[in-house]
Amino acid sequence: MTKRVTLMTTSAALAAAVAISSPAFAQEATAAQAPRAESGDEIIVTARRTEERLQDVPVSITVFNQQQLTARNVVSALDLSTYTPSLSANSRFGNESTTFAIRGFTQDGATFPSVAVYFADVVAPRANGGTSAGNGAGVGAFFDLQNVQVLKGPQGTLFGRNTTGGAVLLVPRKPSDKLEGYAELSAGNYNMIRGQAAFNIPLASTVRLRIAADSQIRDGYLRNRSGIGPKDFNDVDYVALRGSLVVDVTPEIENYTILSYSSSHTHGFYPKIVICNPAAPLLGPLSCAQIARQQARGDGFYDIENGNPLADQHIKQTQLINTTTWRASDTVTLKNIISYARFKQDQTSNIFGDNFFLAPGFPFTFVGLYPDAGRHNASQWTFTEEFQVQRKSPNEALSWQAGVYFEKSGPLGGYQGSLSPILLSCTDVYAFRCVNPIGAGNIQQSLQKYYFRNLGVYAQGTYRISDSLSLTAGVRYTSDKTSGIGAVRRISFPAPNTPVFTCVAFPGRPAPTPDDCRYPLTQKSSRPTWMIDLEYKPTRDVMLYAKYSRGYRQGGVAVSNPSLLETWGPEKVDTYEVGAKTSFRGRIHGYLNVAAFYNDFRDQQLQANALVIPPQSPVSGIINAGKSRIYGAEVDASISPLENLTLDVSYAYLNTKLQEFTTPPLDPARFVRLIPTSVVGGPLALAPKNKISATATYRLPVSESVGRISLGATFTHTDKQVASAASPIGVLPATNLLNLNLNWESIGHSPLDLALFATNVTKKKYATYVGGSYASSGFDTIIVGQPRMYGARLRFRFGN
């Protein structure tokens, strides 16, 4: 391997001096930040809430360090799913609100995530709004990270909070004892400009500070051809700031604080109408007319028609995290993690992509979405507190940890709320200047307050039976409570611009104010979850494991649209998994990890669309569907067959099936039938049978005086997958994506790095989601995947 030469600058010398004077605790804290070794030996993960080698953890994990994320141009949750075969993403409501699915475990509608996202050991802040919001990896989350870890399968013992499908761990770069940093600038097509910077400053021998920022603007790749509202959609415009401070209170006590802020202000996402049924009442001909206009203009794949002049999306998130770690002795560590977060979202759109006209100059909205006057669509605070005890016996035969967890979340400043004009023609929604041309339209004013409470107690330990055989077992008891207060009014228009207010939950009741329609709901659930795992390590480089675990996802309530779909109960899953992890050395070195699993679902939470009888509003909600099963296998490998060549391959096979579906009783005066996203005997949504991602990286054999130049190519294949069983276009076709990158580090032996990148090089036109509205409305939409993106990045490094 080529030896690297380090330039000793003045700042580097200062950093070295600081490092010598730092306490042992600080030096040990940064040991986990070592770069990824080609053999895989030094990949450090925190899948069991403590630092361990990847190859020592009996969990199926895919890990990306910051260098790999940067080379692949991963800037959003949707980008991450492209490179992780077991990970799928639902981007129906835009990249900023993407939700994850692992091994077929999805998050539908207002359900809680089956794949929890953690930043610095703290779960993402909650939010329940008019559309999917919060609960995940927000904008500006994928910069200045130590790594990203995708844990597959139930993680409910140590992580809790409904991690039935798995967890995504974002581990930020921790302040170190070195004076160092970087600044970089990227530019690309669609007028993309991105700037990043991070500065690490040792303020004293016991105090270390790191400040980082990330900002990007980019035009939208969906061109608006209607002339109404913004010129494009799916644009990018965000800023993310992060400050981290580590204080060594004593040589044994460390206090670590992170303050982060992000703000995204874009035109929002937009679905594209691609199919219509001319025989469907009213909406069929209107949608067919929109498609005909698109065809007459010669619109391309990335052209859409927007009908909302105020289309806009603004998301803000602030989070404060404090972690105090006390190494009470060589065998006992105490840790306390406390956090507070605030999430706000404002969104205005026609959520089904419609630009309908009953006559020229007479617009007609199917379903619109606006923030209620003076309120946000989603507005929530979240507080968490967790206390852990970790202990190892003196001979390390037994290691265990136990903890208690508390989470509470509530509304920010009273009600959050949305206005949804449905089947109306409005010139001013906020002034209620609307006409009801077909007699079935109204504005639904949905004001909501949500309260969440989660309590958990857990313990997990590993007992080393012999030098090669270990047993791990853990248990957690979780108690959840979800409460909602809805104040939902139906605003009808018996005459133009003449609103009449009644309650949705209490048909016919006059409602001069929203509080006249107060409608409380509460859902409680408590369950134990557990796991037991047997690990066999005949050598340091080989581990075999077999485990059984129980997962649980809490029930919930939806008070925004009172109906038969307003509450749902918890779901549970039993998972059986066997796996092997191997490392190999010598001329050919790397690692190979495989896992096979079987999941048995009961009371699975699925989204269903209800066919309603006018003038009822369209209803989409959650039901406990019955039973399903999922089985499959995963392979994760990194191999260096030649000195300058590395191959990274990940593969996932999934076989999913909805075995039973139980329809709840329907009110015949309001509903016709329910249509779930999956059908009995068919696969679950967002669960492609085969998905593979292969990356080849070749380092050119050039002199160190030139720098380090590498070429990379990533190919990702995803099989066809169901997005909505209720639609004739509900199966997404298979996709093949090719991404390329070139990285030139230390140009001419300087602190400058240059990178070129391109994603979707072959310009594949594909959809990432299907709306599923065909049966209820007579037309359907797709969410359009990103076109080819390319650009260049220049980075300046200083210090170490």
Can you characterise this structure?
- This protein is mostly beta strands.
- Helix content is 6%, strand content 56%.
- It has 6 helices and 49 strands.
- It has a 27-stranded antiparallel beta sheet that branches.
- It starts with 9 loop residues before the first helix and ends with a strand.
- Mean pLDDT is 88; it is low at 1-39.
- Multimeric organization: single chain
Question: Measured on Cα atoms, how large is the radius of gyration?
Answer: 27 Å
**Strand segment tally:** 49
At the first level of CATH, the class is Mainly Beta
CATH superfamily: TonB-dependent receptor, beta-barrel domain
Q: Using the coordinates shown, work out and report the CATH topology.
A: Maltoporin, Chain A
Q: What low-confidence regions span 5 or more consecutive residues with pLDDT below 50?
A: 1-39
Q: Largest sheet, if any? A: 27 strands, antiparallel
- Could you tell me the strand content as a percent range? over 45%
Q: Count of helical segments?
A: 6
CATH architecture: Beta Barrel
Q: In percent, how helical is the residue content?
A: under 10%
Q: Please tell me the total number of domains.
A: 1
- Distance from N terminus to C terminus (CA atoms, Å) equals 21 Å
Q: Structural class of the secondary structure composition?
A: mainly beta
The general outline is globular
Overall mean pLDDT stands at 88
